[in-house]
Design goal:
This is ABC transporter permease subunit. This protein is mainly α. It has 12 helices and no strands. The longest helix is centred in the middle third of the chain and has 36 residues.
Length: 277
Amino acid sequence: MTAGVSEHVPGQRAPRIAGRASFGNILAAELIKIRTVRSTMWTLLSGVVVSVGLSVLLALVTANQFDSMKARDRAEFDPTSNALAGLNLGVVAFGVLGVLAITSEYASGLIRTCLAAVARRSHYLAAKALTVGVVVLVVGEVVSLVSFGLGQAVFDGKGIAAGLTDPGVTRAVLGAGVYLAATALLGLALGALLRHTAGAVTTLLGLLFVLPVIGSFLPGDLGETVNKLLPSNAGSAVMSATTADGSLSPWTGLGVFCLYLAAVLAAAFWRLRTTDV
């Protein structure tokens, strides 16, 4: 046998050459991260508690005040969107979860190890987006169903409850979970683009809450059109069983929100591929 050359013995498996992680390996690693990182799990739990707790609280207040509401307000009352109202604030926690899923790695320096272990940087961000999106989608659908069920139990005492088989209700409940998942992905995209937790969270809050306040000051038809197209106003339209005045239709609104998401995600992929960590 020649020195320095190993001989392959028949019947034995040839030694594997170590390589970079496959997409499946990256997915498995991201699932472990999201289950074991404390900040992620606490943020996820806070999103559940805030969404469900606030939805029930608002349903109790609404039911208590229902008889004193104006006749027009009672006629236009949507028990579905009212039962899901707490998700409009809980969405912040899910968005922050998306931010932390990637900015925590930039803060700790782990991002360098992660990117060195993958064959393509785009695979790393795609796996992280898929993991965050699926986890929040599953949790979001549970949160939406529980909030809806508890809210209708409160409204049932007033005879104003809705059922899942009523027109538009199932779409609204399931769409609410999709909206939560899309917001988490928006947070992830902002985190990957800005690479700083405070900056990404501030930007996310500005998009969701500050822009609607600014838009409310715009006059006339311009203000009405702009307000319809703002991210949170467009995305949350899917949580109503009917199309409210001054809002986009449910699926159109969610589609507009997803266009914002796609634009920020594309920018995040571009920066990750073209700049150093």
